[in-house]
Structure formats: structure tokens, C-alpha cells
Design a protein that fits this description.
With 329 residues, the protein is of the alpha/beta class. The chain contains twelve helices and eight strands. It has an eight-stranded mixed sheet with strand order 1-2-4-3-5-6-7-8, sandwiched between helices. The relative contact order is 0.14. Pfam families: Abhydrolase_1. One of its GO terms (cellular component) is membrane.
Amino acid sequence: MLKTISLSFVLLLCSVASLFAQKADTISINLENVKYPYPIKYFAVNTEGQDLRMAYMDIPPTQLTNGRTVVLFHGKNFGGYYWTNVIKALTSRGFRVIVPDQIGFGKSSKAFIHYSFHQMAKWNKELLDGLGIAKASILGHSMGGMLATRFALMYPEKTEKLLLENPIGLEDYRRFIPYLSTEDQYKKELTSTAESIRKYYQGSYFTLWKAEYEELVRIAGGVTYSGDFPRWAKVAAMTYTMIYEQPIVYEFYNIKVPTVLFIGKEDKTVVGKGLLSPDQQALYGQYKLLGKQTAAKIPGAKIVEFEACGHIPHIEIPTEFNVALLGSL
């Protein structure tokens, strides 16, 4: 009888410990409990009858200002929190830096709306107008590269330079990725766990995994514990559809602003890659080729390539990336 009670007590303690561990790991879908490196402000957006909030950081230069501004557009699986070292490098050289979390991402509203790169570009233009910024260099990473390209196409007069860090969308995914409806993608997103996210990051984003990258997993994986995770998953599915259905690859020829591509040559990112067989996967996402091909399409574009580097140069090789970025500015 005593053994039975002791076993039950141990199981209860384990259950309670597990509950507290999960609670400690939980991240809200608007990242309220994620500390950003600089103060957050909010820009009001009204669309489709909804009042939304677009979070952003506005960081002044730490050295004598050079009068110039750089805007940082994050990738699909990230928010403004992963730009810290780039912000420090830029502000130390006199740049003002604006770091938005796009609607649907980071600390911004997770809205059920029609997601569009055109609409996102317009919101960012309105944000810059509201901040009194007439012209800025736009740096976009991954999905942010698609958005930055759309911004430069729509607002060349506001784009001093277009800077693309391992942008996705260098191929038309509709040509070779099987179509998934937003609802089917939503069901797929619902199966995400912290462990599946870690495995994806390890296999897709970096050439060599380091302990410091666990913070990225903690944030992305933490939202899967949230009671609001289904809303996060629905928005993630909607923005996947945006990427799939709104290619920019055919419009690189139309870019009219100075452009620099920063390419980690070991990157093999393909949106929807898991829907392909291993043989098919080997045919696409070859950034060592795609970077050069894209630079050739953009009038006057320059390219900076990084050896032994994957999808996120500004994290994997921060010093080398920042030197190249500042040199390009």
C-alpha cells in the first residue's frame, strides 16, 4: 500500500514538474514575453474592418548621425529580435535603423486577412512617412527579401538601396512545389513542435549548429505551447500561401535602384521543400547558382558571396556580414 502511495506521489510530482516546465517554455503568439533589444513602438493599421498593430523599433545612431536610415525586413520564421548585431553595427556607424515586425509576425497583430506583399509594402511606406523618413536603404532577409523587392518596385523614390540577404523567391515555387490549400497548410502547421522546429533549423539554416542558436528555437518553438497556437498556425499558413502565390522572380529586371545581394552559398532553402522527394530537392534551392543568376537579372546589381555559410549570414558569420553590409552602404 505504501509503495502504491509513493509511486502515485512521484507520478504527481512529475506531472506538476512537467506542467511548470511547459509553462516556463510557453511563448505568447504576439511574443509579449520575448524581450527585444530596443524599445517597441506600435503603428496603427486598419484593414478589412480590423484595427491592427504593427510593432517596430526605431533606433537612433550611437555615433554622430550620417543622416541616413536603414530598414530591416525579417524572414518568415523570425521577428525583429534576431537583428541585434546588425542594428549595433549600423547605429555605431551613424545610421538610424527601423525594424518592423510585419503584420502577422513577431509582436504585431496575428490577423485573419488577405496577406499581400503589396499591402505590406504600403504599410511600411506609410510607417516611414509617419516617421518623417523620405528615403531609406531596405535590407530584407529570406521572406523579407521578397517584401524588400516589392517595396523597391513600388516605391523606388523612397529606396536608396535594395539589400537582399539570402532572399527566398529566387525561383517560382509554383513550377515544382505541389499546391497546398491554405487549409491543408494550416493542418500541417498545427503539427509543429519545438523539436520539429529545432530539426528544421539545424538542417536548413546553418552549416554547423551552435548552442547560441537555441534561442531562435526557444522563441519559435515556444509559441507551439500557447493556447492561441491555432491562430498562429492559421496566420503562418496564410503567409505561406502569400509566398507561394505572389512570386517576384519575374520582376527583377524592373528594379531601378542600386541593389546588392548577400548570399550564403551553402543555403538550399526551398519553400515547401518537404513536399518534394530527395531527388527533387537536390534540383532546387541552390543559392550558389541562384545568387549569381538573380544578380544578372537586376540592372547593375552587385553580389557578395559567403563561403561555408547557410541561410542566415548575419547570424552565422556576423562579423563578415556586417563588414560587407557597411561596405555596401
